[in-house]
Amino acid sequence: GGEKKKAESFQLLMLKPDFAILDEPDSGLDVDAVRTVSKGIREYQNLHKEGTMLIITHSTKILEALHVDRVHVLVDGRIRESGDASLIEEINQNGYERFLK
Predict the structure, then answer these.
(1) Residue 57 has what pLDDT?
(2) For residues 34 and 28, what is the distance between their CA atoms, to the nearest angstrom?
(3) What residues form DSSP beta bridges with 82?
(4) What average pLDDT score do residues 44-58 get?
(5) What angle do CA 49, 30, 21 make, to 5 degrees?
């Protein structure tokens, strides 16, 4: 499963863009496929340190395996909260409810 998502992470490594937008790279993937895709993204981060990546996701699981500088929580098209990677852990512990008020 997730062959298209795996191919997208391979393209990321081959094309080495300066700016990449990954829209739900973990969507519809099982645990093993998320691990494979995150490994490709991590490899891009290691090889292309000056590159910038925007990852859009509803699940924080894939972010746990990556180097994350900034986290933004969007609700109804607006940024409700911004922070460093520690915001991921807060979301994992408490969910998104506080951002919906």
Answers:
(1) 93
(2) 9
(3) 72
(4) 93
(5) 35
